[in-house]
Amino acid sequence: MGKTDIGPPDYKNFLPPVIKKNYGKWKYHEIIKPGLLKHVAESGDELYTVRAGSGRLLSTDHIREICEVADKYCDGYLRFTSRHNIEFFLADKNKVEPLIAELKSKGFPVGGTGHSITNIVHTQGWVHCHTPATDASGPVKAVMDELYDYFVTMKLPSQVRIALACCLNMCGAVHCSDIAILGLHRTVPKPDHSRLPNVCEIPTTVASCPTGAIRPDPKTKSVIINEEKCMYCGNCYTVCPALPLADPENDGISIWVGGKVSNARTAPMFSKLVIPFLPNNPPRWPEVVSAVKNIVEVYAKNARMHERIGEWINRIGWERFFRLTGIEFTDKHIDDFKLAPETYRTTTQFKWG
Ligand code: SF4
Ligand code: SF4
Fold first, then answer.
1. Which one of the ligands is nearest to 236 CA?
2. How far apart are CA 235 and CA 225, in angstroms?
3. CA atoms within 13 A on the CB side of 245
4. Model-level pTM?
5. What is the DSSP code string of 115-142?
6. Which residue's alpha carbon is at the smallest distance from atom 3 of ligand 2?
7. Whose CA is nearest to atom 2 of ligand 1?
8. End-to-end CA distance of the chain
């Protein structure tokens, strides 16, 4: 097939030879130590993977540095995981330790495997997107600096996946992560009546609202927002740039816990709200950092081996989770969405912790 600029190139063209040769024929894998995986194929071939942390937004200089390391040790082969870890592939066992030593000397954290906190998957934030209620890279950097020790070791009861999305449109994995950091708006969009008639189409703007909160205002040739119906999703702002949503005082962060994608032992789970609002406090977001750290430490101390955060909470009960973490339970925790009753616990069986 000729070259095309539609869609990504076939990934199979970029596989390291040892993976291409043994594709789909792997016998087992093991984690030798934090940041080092070993895969063994039916043919007896071995593949070593060294995992290192990386920021999600990378400078070209830094990418060149990563590529130089891959050229030196891995014949140029590396990949980025869905959580932005870098994985260097080696077929030669003798190069593994020199590679790890060079990565460490260059300041790369090596780890993120097994019962650790791996890189935080996150969204665009203030750097790029138009609807964020918080930054993405900023809080993630502040949180991971504090949790660094959990990246380079495997001392937690199980994997802890953390995600950040800077608004509830959710380009991150906040719905299904052990701990989710989610930006939220708390005020309705503010229509700019002088610009709106010139830059926006009224019917598409009205149609963009999932809750029917926008109606046309023939007097101003603009729109009116019904505050009671608005859920601050920002969808209308995507369609109409004269409906800005950002609010420096009222935008902030919520914390959710207990989600997972894995179907090991128990079914995948959605994350649930535990802290409704924390302020945006750049550049180091101390409130968010200490809230996340507290949840990780209480979990590390109380969970059983192999229990994910959601599984641990299901065992001990939400009442006990709130008591152990010292997080206040408020009316904001009660889901009042119209389909919420389906998710309610409908027995009288409470676990008073
Ligand atoms: Fe933009 Fe929301 Fe995605 Fe953040 S989560 S990048 S604000 S759409
Ligand atoms: Fe509707 Fe969302 Fe805009 Fe509110 S923010 S008016 S809910 S589209």
1. 2
2. 13
3. 29
4. 0.92
5. SSB-PPB---GGGT-SS-SS-SHHHHHH
6. 236
7. 167
8. 64
Going by the DSSP 8-state scheme, the letter that residue 143 receives in this structure is H
Atom of ligand 1 at shortest distance to CA of 169?
2
230 CA → ligand 2 middle, Å: 5
Band the pLDDT of 204: cuts 50, 70, 90.
very high
Name the region of 211 (left: φ>0; alpha: ψ -120 to 50; beta: rest): alpha
The closest residue, in CA terms, to atom 3 on ligand 1 is 171
The token pair that represents 220 in the structure block = 């101003």
CA distances from 236 to 188, 213, 242, 245, 277 (A): 10, 10, 9, 9, 23
- Rounded to the nearest angstrom, the distance between the alpha carbon of 168 and the centre of ligand 1 is 7
Any atom of ligand 1 within 6 Å of the Cβ of 129: yes
* Paired tokens of 242: 């004269």
What 3 state SS string does 167-216 have?
A: CCCCCCCHHHCCEEEEEECCCCCCCCCCCHHHHCCHHHHHHCCCCCCEEE
181 lines ligand 1 (CB under 6 A): no
Contact call for residues 85 and 112 (beta carbons, < 8 A): yes
- Answer whether 170 contacts ligand 1 (Cβ < 6 A): yes
Could you read off the pLDDT of 309-338 as tens digits, one per residue? 999 999 999 999 999 999 999 999 988 877
3-state secondary structure of 220: coil
Is the Cα torsion angle 74, 75, 76, 82 positive or negative in sign? negative
